[in-house]
Specification:
alpha/beta; TIM Barrel; 8-stranded parallel beta barrel; 48% helix; 16% strand; CmoO-like; oxidoreductase; EC 1.-.-.-; oxidoreductase activity; LLM class flavin-dependent oxidoreductase
Amino acid sequence: MKLSILDQSPMTNEQTARDALIASRKLAQLGETLGYTRFWMTEHHDLDGLASSAPEVLLSYVGAYTKSIRLGTGAVLLPHYKPYKVAEVHHTLATLFPGRIDIGLGRAPGGSAEATNALSDAYLQQVYRFPELVEELLLYINQKHPVLKASPVPDVAPEVWILGTSEKSAILAGEKKLSYAFGQFMSAKDGAKIISTYVNTFNGTKEQRNKRPQALLTVSVYCAETKEKAEEIALPALIWSIRGKGNLPSIEEAKKTTLTEKEKASIQKRKENMIIGDPFHVKQQLLRLKETYQVEEVMIVTNTATVEDRMQSYQFISEQLL
């Protein structure tokens, strides 16, 4: 079973943005040591609590401190950008870090309406054109554009993934013969069915019969010595996710937070889509997901109030499965 890391550079009240970015680099180094396959960074804009607005910049920093773990944008939000520039950026990364770069493509806004307008003059129109934007990007990545070359051209091209939570994204990935990442951690949809749709679409196309579908599942996981401790380290992120303001609170602050009945129900609902527990429980749940979703790789996102709890969670999981 392959395990990977999705990092959002979470910020706490005790951290500066620089602290959070340095912690992301340290997490990538730990992940490489522990045997994780990929380290992807998300793209969020004007969102309190997360320092990950420019994953392509952060990956150049992380890459300089690592040697083998694959690095990826998960996702670069393509409707905000011109495909040519995205290709140039990732070709540069692939030139610096040969055979290690992934381009995860998403169509979400990644932030508020104000941030979206600041990034793109015609975001909704570009969302509708997402399949065309993907096709244009592939021309540059595969060096098949009739006029332009996205320099520098690396010896090993970046691997392109479609990231999503719907059958629409799964079908697009299958039709384009691309790898697919399903975001189970932010979806209540039938992910197993969606991944099956991806595989069936991929296998049903005639082009490049030598390629095989590759899918991964992204899930939110909190692992600690005991289930009680795991619940404790998961609480700040749960409080932060329903309040949507400020940085992640400390465990002590989270415990003191007064919640409405509606908020309590919202937290309970979110927990149903997460794995929270001791190492053995987490192992069993991840193996169950692997079987249910029929994937070879699971990507884990974990946001805690301390860097130590986050790193220890990934370490406990690796000791059980890697």
